[in-house]
């Protein structure tokens, strides 16, 4: 992994609760709140200079802007939701650019597992555990925050364990 273990350890205690919150709110309400996205971005802005060398910190801020522009274009084309685009942008600076292939593999596996689990629970009696969740009644729509939050959490956990 290109991600430094020390940086991942710095970020994890602050980012992990937000990832869980994003997963939960997207399942319950089919939305990723602006507060979660802003908190994720602010945490990077504050903790980033402590966890990363300044040149890396600057390039990762550029990553945030690039992903935000791409996300807005995808949202305008109807490919992804606005909350998903904003969360991806706020999460982008936590990812080392050299780990992009690894991140895509984690995301793909996480997306398949989250989709299968969500659909399994949706069509079984397990659904009664959380009967009021909006994601159960959205047809083919899927709460991507479940995969996005899970992917960032897994990436940082792997970075803390296996990072350089």
UniProtKB/TrEMBL annotation:
The keyword Chaperone does not apply. This is Prepilin type IV endopeptidase peptidase domain-containing protein. Residues 15-115 form the Prepilin type IV endopeptidase peptidase domain. It comes from the Bacteria. The chain crosses the membrane at residues 6-24, 36-55, 61-82, 102-121, 141-162. InterPro entries: Prepilin_IV_endopep_pep. The keyword ATP-binding does not apply. It holds the Pfam family Peptidase_A24. The lineage of its organism: Bacteria, Pseudomonadati, Pseudomonadota, Alphaproteobacteria, Rhodobacterales. Keywords: Membrane, Transmembrane, Transmembrane helix.
């Amino acid at each position: 992994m290109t991600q430094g273990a020390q940086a991942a350890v710095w970020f994890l205690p602050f980012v992990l609760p937000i990832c869980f919150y994003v997963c939960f709110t997207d399942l319950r309400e089919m939305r990723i709140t602006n507060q979660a996205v802003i908190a994720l971005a602010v945490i990077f802005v504050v903790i980033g200079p402590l966890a990363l060398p300044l040149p890396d910190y600057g390039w990762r801020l550029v990553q945030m802007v690039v992903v935000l522009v791409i996300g807005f274009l995808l949202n305008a084309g109807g490919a992804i939701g606005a909350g998903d685009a904003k969360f991806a942008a706020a999460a982008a600076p936590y990812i080392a650019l050299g780990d992009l292939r690894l991140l895509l593999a984690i995301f793909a596996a996480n997306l398949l597992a989250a989709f299968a689990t969500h659909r399994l629970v949706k069509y079984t009696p397990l659904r009664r555990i959380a009967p009021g969740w909006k994601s159960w009644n959205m047809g083919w729509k899927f709460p991507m925050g479940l995969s996005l939050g899970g992917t960032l959490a897994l990436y940082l956990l792997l970075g803390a364990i296996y990072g350089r």
